[in-house]
Amino acid sequence: MELQVEIKGGAMLVRLAGEIDLAVADTLRTSLEEELDRNPGVRNIVINLGGVRYIDSSGLGVLLGRYRRISGDGGRMFIVGASPQVRRIVEMSGLLNIMQEFPSEADALNHAG
Amino acid sequence: MEPVNRMRVEFTSLPANVAFARVAAAAFASQLDFTLNDLEEIKVAVSEAVTNAIVHGYENSAGGTVVLAVEIRKNTLKIVVEDTGKGIEDMEKALQPAYSTDPERMGLGFAFMQSFSDSLKVESKPNAGTRVTMTKVCARKASSPAGR
Ligand SMILES: Nc1ncnc2c1ncn2[C@@H]1O[C@H](COP(=O)(O)OP(=O)(O)OP(=O)(O)O)[C@@H](O)[C@H]1O
Ligand SMILES: [Mg+2]
Questions:
Q1: Which residues of B have a catalytic role annotated?
Q2: pLDDT band at residue A17 under the 50/70/90 scheme
Q3: Structurally, how many domains does chain A consist of?
Q4: What spacing in Å lies between the alpha carbon of B109 and ligand 2's midpoint?
Q5: Any idea where the domains of chain B sit in the sequence?
Q6: N or C end: fewer C-beta atoms under 10 angstroms in chain B?
Q7: Cβ of A23 and B112 within 8 Å?
Q8: Beta-strand pair B65-73/B5-12
Q9: Which domain holds residue A82?
Q10: pLDDT given for residue B147 in this prediction
């Protein structure tokens, strides 16, 4: 897994790549929690799944957990770049009902920043 | 009579082995003429079953053994994932979508296994273990290596 985080105003941009399963779920969870702790001004999160080749319930659970954290303060989570296969899994999980999908990072940041 | 083609591996209940299991199962399954989409579904289904064995069955301890057995009979793939962990207390609840005994999890695993297979059977006994059996039929006719 590769993880890249950038703070863009009130938004945290998270670029994810690789295979997101049980083997990396703890690392991903801890990294995102640390970034949120370190950046209390972050309100919204943009997740770029462009480089993700595989995701399953372990990865989706991590995303939902961070959504829960920010949504308590009215924050929202946005998804961009999912491949058809990854998108299908995300959609089946129901996460697309609570996280808005955008065609590009720039579009998402326009709404999130 | 059609020969049965089998594989069986057992491995330690380590998170890194989830990827090993899904790749091994998909590689074996690709002897049938599954579509790429089917193979992706097989990977997710196997990962969910193996993840459950590690996370729930063995409660994240690396002291357990997970068995993955895959079988090809004509154009049907059969996948078995087995653990000898703590077992499932309430099967009816466990199989409900969005039910989880872990507040950090979403209860998606069995729902994915169900969606991505043609049949799903879960057998479990508290303090003895769990066996998940899935079948998936390959719609395209297999090219039988034995028949060529
Ligand atoms: N191999 C197993 N051993 C013991 N309990 C299990 C096993 N597999 C599943 N369970 C029980 O069944 C429940 C439902 O499993 P399921 O995979 O659907 O959801 P989950 O694992 O809790 O969440 P997710 O799959 O979204 O991470 C689990 O919470 C757990 O209590
Ligand atoms: Mg599960």
A1: 48, 52, 105
A2: very high
A3: 1
A4: 4
A5: 4-147
A6: N
A7: no
A8: antiparallel
A9: 2-112
A10: 39
Under 8 Å CB pairs connecting chains A and B tally to 50
In this predicted model, what pLDDT tens digit does every residue of A32-87 receive, in sequence order? 999 999 999 999 999 999 999 999 999 999 999 999 999 999 999 999 999 999 99
pLDDT in tens, B4-35: 999 999 999 999 999 999 999 999 999 999 99
The domain B4-147 is placed in CATH, from the list 3.40.630.30, 3.30.565.10, 2.40.50.1000, 3.30.450.20, at 3.30.565.10
Residues 6+ apart with CB under 8 A from A37: none
**Residue for token pair 């154009």:** B75
Q: Which residues surround ligand 2, an ion (CB under 5 A)?
A: B 52, 109
Give the binding-site residues of ligand 1, using a 6 Å CB cut-off: A 57-58, 61; B 48, 52-53, 56-57, 83, 85-88, 94, 99-102, 105-110, 130
Give one DSSP letter per residue of A88-99, joined into a string.
HHHHHTTGGGTS
Enumerate residues 79 to 98 of chain B having a beta carbon within 8 A of any beta carbon in chain A. none
Q: What is residue B23's three-state secondary structure?
A: helix
CA distance B71 to chain A (A): 24
| 3-state secondary structure at position B83 | strand
Residues of chain A contacting B26 with CB distance shorter than 8 Å: none
